[in-house]
Amino acid sequence: MPVEQPSAEAIDRAAGLLRAGGLVVFPTETVYGLGAVAHDARAVRSVFERKGRPASNPLIVHVADEAMARTVTSEWPDDAQMLAERFWPGPLTLVAAVRSGVPNEVTAGGPTVAVRCPDHAVALELLRAVGSPLVAPSANPSGYVSPTLASHAAGHFGDLTILDGGACSVGIESTVLRMDPLEILRPGSIGPVQIQAVLGRTPTIAERSANGSEASPGRLGPHYQPRAHTVQVGTTAELAEVLQVSGNQPCVVLAQPSVSIEPPHQLIEMPVGAAEYAARLYAALRAADAAEPELIVVLKPTGSDEAGLWSAIAERLSRATG
Ligand code: TXA
Ligand code: MG
Hints:
Blueprint: E1 3-4, H1 8-19, E2 24-26, E3 33-37, H2 41-51, E4 60-62, H3 66-70, H4 78-87, E5 92-97, H5 104-107, E6 112-116, H6 121-130, E7 134-135, H7 150-154, E8 161-163, E9 175-178, E10 183-186, H8 192-199, E11 204-205, E12 230-233, H9 236-246, E13 251-255, E14 266-269, H10 274-290, E15 295-299, H11 309-320
Parallel strand pairs: 1-8, 2-8, 4-6, 5-9, 10-11, 12-15, 13-14, 13-15
Antiparallel strand pairs: 2-3, 3-7, 4-7, 5-6, 9-10
The structure holds threonylcarbamoyladenylate and magnesium ion (MG).
């Protein structure tokens, strides 16, 4: 079985595989990652190959602590230190100047490196057992929905060792924050208000653009997409219309409570709270996709906030629905 319970022995074996140049899937609090030793250029290249990921999209380097972060960065600004002290381990990725010796593959040849310390006991034990930083993009083929369960990753990388850490508690990827200039490149569960509370300055939020000039290449183009055609609707009236047009072609609907759906359509009920919604989102999209419906319809969640978790969820939904 590729999926293993994360006993001390299993983590040691996985660390050995990584040190020997292999790939291992491990859990984090956000999503499962496809790990490789960051300083092993060959292993890093095989991560890109296995994911079908464009070489132009840099990887996040995972570290056990702030001391390990300093081994891959050439400058560690006071602001980075303050944010790490407040939010690490946790779902905040910091983009800072890269130290020489980090393979070009990791940074896509750029001058910066993204680093984060994951808040998951298995990830931290694995990092300590390996003793050096690990790259870990989400453990899914490039463009598809990220994995929040070991079984999701096993569907893609069944030949690899997969450490089972249970369901990811956060459920959407980390906030990616560039330090200089201070800008959120990818929204996540740690929002501008929390960052402002630590630094006394509010980061700008990168706009999605299609012109390729964007600082976080991973936000270009389609992402998080099920195989089935997926659309988002804003109101229950619009939902009824879409279902009527599809007639007896079965659709799967993701909607918060009090929406009723008649066969042949199927409802996946989504939570009311933002944290619960985020934690459930990718598993729900994957369950919907597994039913091979004509269409997946997401009823836009009603929760809203200025720039917090709901806006990160909205970004994922708009990407998932093309
Ligand atoms: O929560 C997460 O961050 C998960 C778990 C496994 O840690 N990882 C993850 O990795 O989401 P990935 O590869 O799926 O997404 C990495 C994102 C991409 O949008 C990429 O463009 C951006 O981080 N990124 C990486 N290095 C960067 C850099 N030097 N400058 C700007 N953006 C960078
Ligand atoms: Mg990803």
